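Customer escalation, tier 2.

The customer says the design service returned an amino acid string that "doesn't look like it belongs to this structure." They asked us to rerun it and document both sides in this ticket. The original structure tokens are below, unchanged.
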């Protein structure tokens, strides 16, 4: 395997997480103080999108290349505010409350667990439009890329990886694995990366 090459080094004190924009040209970093920084890879400089206010950011998701969804809470077990930010203009577009406690966000989509996490509904953060309802499926983790939704369900002796059409929620197919730890799609949505509890990595195409 060829050695990786470091492109640049960016500094954000007490950084909590970071996310690339859908086109891969921008990077947003999140500080534990509630600040958001938009980075320019070429110069290593940043623009401050959201000023520090000591709030806690637990979810960060691009709706598109210019719109950012931010889940904020003072309690790590309850996300009580959803903010939408236009990163081009550095302005807050919308602020609202989630439909239910335990809601979280991926790729500009809000996922609301139902019936003690045995079903879930998901909807567009940008438009508020309901997309689909998936029932009789335990939700432990999920990944979204392009028009594909992958859900991960942990059971006592096995794990189920279900592939759904994102727009309709229709189940396409299922993979059964044992001792699975994480399932995640690659950035281009063309590969599935699996980590098991023994530390082995599988790549599916």
């Amino acid at each position: 395997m060829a050695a990786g090459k470091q492109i640049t080094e960016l500094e954000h004190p007490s950084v909590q997480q970071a996310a690339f924009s859908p086109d891969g040209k921008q990077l947003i970093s999140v500080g534990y103080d509630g600040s958001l920084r938009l980075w320019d890879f070429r110069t290593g400089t940043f623009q401050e999108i959201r000023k520090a206010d000591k709030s806690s950011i637990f979810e960060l998701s691009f709706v598109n290349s210019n719109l950012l969804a931010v889940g904020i809470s003072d309690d790590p077990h309850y996300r009580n505010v959803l903010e939408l930010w236009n990163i081009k203009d550095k302005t807050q577009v919308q602020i609202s409350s989630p439909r239910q406690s335990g809601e979280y966000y991926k790729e500009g989509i809000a996922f609301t667990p139902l019936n003690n996490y045995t079903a879930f509904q998901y909807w567009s953060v940008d438009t508020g439009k309901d997309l689909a309802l998936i029932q009789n499926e335990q939700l432990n983790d999920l990944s979204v890329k392009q028009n594909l939704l992958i859900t991960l369900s942990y059971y006592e002796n096995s794990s189920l990886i279900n592939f759904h059409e994102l727009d309709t929620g229709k189940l396409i197919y299922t993979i059964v694995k044992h001792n699975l730890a994480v399932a995640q799609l690659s950035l281009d949505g063309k590969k599935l990366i699996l980590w098991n509890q023994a530390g082995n990595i599988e790549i599916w195409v």
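Tier 2 assessment: The sequence is consistent with the input. The longest strand covers residues 56-62. The chain has a mean pLDDT of 75. Sent an explanation to the customer and offered a walkthrough call.
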